[in-house]
Write the structure tokens for this entry.
Amino acid sequence: MARQRLDPNLEAMLLFADVGINIAKGRRRQGGGRRHRLRRFVGEQSRTGSWVLRGVTAQVAAGESVAVLGLKNSGRTEFLRLAAGTLIPDEGEVRRRAPVLPMIDLGRAFDRGFTVRQNIYLLGGLLGMTPGEVEVALPAIVENAKLAPNIDKYLRGASALTRQKLAWTIAMATKAPVIVADGMLVVGDVESRKQCLDQVERLKAAGTTFLVSTDVPRKFEGFFDRAIVLHNGGIVADGAVADGLALLRELRLASPAADTGKDDTL
Amino acid sequence: MALAYRNGVRIIWEHRQVLRMLVLRDLQKQYTKFRLGYLWTLLEPLGMALVLWFVFTQLLGGQKLGLQPYFLFIAVGILPWWWFSRGVSGAARTFRRNPAILRMSVLPTKIWVIRVVLVAMAEYLLSLPVILIAMLATGTLPGPLIALFPVAIIVQFFLMYGLAMLIAAGAAVIPDLARIVRIVLRATFYLSPVLYSIANIPAGAQVIAAVNPLVGILGLYRIGFWPTEIDSLPHYGISLGVTVAIFIAGSVLFHRLEGRILKEG
């Protein structure tokens, strides 16, 4: 029943076996509003999906840190969601040996109508912690996110940075053996980024497996052991980080319009 | 039975702590939003029952509608209806409210449906004092068959759960379904024996009306107060059968569409 079926006998930590996912991309963005509903009704917008990823086969070994690179809309988020089981593949299968923590859009899961404390329980719960476990981790979370004086205030007033930092701290408190992150591995201002990076490095040294999608891989030089490059719905490179970066640069040059290189919000 | 266990009881039990938190938070949010808080849970159905009682006995007096005392009759009917209507319209919004949750939550997708169902049920349980008030106002006491009241709650829970799975999954894939649900809900109010008893409608139509699962559920709720309702027992059987069918259909459809639902995240 649970979203993530575990496979304790698997040799790799994560295994993608000929995975394909077909999504009608941008459908929701274009589909809102009465005008567009009418358009769809008269058939102007096709509802048939496209293969965001297809025939993807890859594996991640225990303790490995893998960067997922690619242009925008290259299916990086879908790749990560498939890894975490928050998407079910249309073809093939994804197998995992240990629970995977999805650090994807965490800040958006918060409920602005709740207090900080309630939100910690909420997000912790969504990430698979029981309220008892959250209670144990609560003091450390509040201290790390520097929210101690505001714990019973509503989260409504908090800045985006604060929310990100809080989400990050809660995610780290789950102590998951595999972390799948969509540009959320390091958050906050310069100082807190350094802290984040320190902690992530420590986790890596302790044997945590990472699968991270990032727009600014150069900031993590040395952190990643391997890079996977996604392009046109498939894996075009799977190997050394330097090779992956070189290929990504080529892809960017070839289609400058598709990817203007985001700022360094990671 | 096995399906009910696998889909309902076990998943709720395994995630009881998270569910308890989600439901409590939702209720808390509702009750802290308004000055009168919890009182609205009593005042709203009470006001509704009063209006209906006034219209059907004082304005349109003399009509042989439902059973006496009519005020209690409406109160016993309107509360489960409220639960039904809240649950159904909430289910249509399940995955529209916060699709981001689908992207990052490791909990089973069904949890979000169960959350909506449980919140509606908790509100219903909290509004039950309305029946006590109606009993006091009309000076009526229930008979021994009131023991069927909790049974009715359990049956309605499974009906709501099955329906919510059907509607939530459907609405995630076809957004227009939310609109359709609203219209159907309107019609269901008048097609269900909330204002009248199943015995009030022509004998030939009773069998067809009994396809509505609410017929059986409302009958079970009322049997304790009006033992004559037991005459319609065969009809209750039909609607209980439909309830089971809805639950099975909901479970199957949700399982089939889970991948599609997740893509909406």
User: Anything to note?
Assistant: The two ends of chain B are 32 Å apart (CA to CA). Residues 2-263 of chain B form one domain.
